[in-house]
Amino acid sequence: MIGTILEDNSLTPFLASTCSENGISANIINGIENVDYIILKPDQFYNSLGIYPTPPSTDCLIVIKCDDSFKVVLVELKNINSPSHFNKNNIREKFRTVLNDFMSNKFRNIFYDDYDIELSMYFVCDPYGSKGGSTRTSSLLSEIFINLRPLEFANKKYIIRAVNPDLTVAGC
Q1: pLDDT at 19
Q2: Residue 117: CB partners within 8 Å, gap ≥ 6?
Q3: φ and ψ of 34, to 5 deg
Q4: Within the chain, where are the H helices?
Q5: What residues pair up with 74 in beta bridges, in sequence order?
Q6: 56/119 Cα distance (integer angstroms)
Q7: CB-based contact 1:110 (threshold 8 Å)
Q8: Which of 144, 151, 13 lies closest to 80, judged by CA?
């Protein structure tokens, strides 16, 4: 899968070395070689299409090579400084666009090519600029996402998990 992505000229402009935005990041755990993972920026891909309205999409799509499978992690990074900037439906739509259009339509040949995929989705946020987040705020965000209808990819259902800043994406 990683080789196929690297060979796709329509995706290579959207490869990134980090998953970071507005002081919030998702990091790859130490010990995973650079050749065993890639980071794509779906939001940059959709912004480059020049269509209006631009479909909402996640900040990062991380692919990690495991022994006989791949771990795919979708990440939305958000620095929320007030409750008015939190829109659960928009955030859900970002993940839905990447699952239903980016992975299942535009690049179906990559993400549906007989690969065993372990999929995770994370909303990484710093609630109200707390850098580390309060336990209460994090719990409330987690409850909000648990109560949302799961999203589907390849006939499996997945939920979005809310986590505090500086998520570390583990290997397989």
Answers
A1: 95
A2: 69, 70, 71, 72, 111, 154
A3: -55, -30
A4: 2-7, 42-48, 88-97, 108-111, 135-146
A5: 61, 121
A6: 19
A7: yes
A8: 144
CB atoms within 10 A of CB 141: 23
User: Residues 162-166: what's their mean pLDDT?
Assistant: 80
Rg, the chain, Cα only: 16
Element (H, E) at 135: helix 135-146
The residue whose two tokens read 């990447």 is: 98
pTM for the predicted model, two decimal places = 0.90
Q: Which residue has the higher pLDDT, 17 or 86?
A: 17
Alpha-carbon distance 167 to 170, whole Å? 9
pLDDT at residue 81, rounded to an integer: 67
If one compares 151 and 148, the residue with the highest pLDDT of the two is: 151
- CB neighbour list of residue 82: distance below 8 Å, 6 or more residues apart: 128
pLDDT band at 139 (very low <50, low <70, confident <90, very high): low
What pLDDT score was predicted for residue 85?
A: 63
Contact 45, 102 (CB under 8 A): yes
Tokens describing residue 74: 């979708």
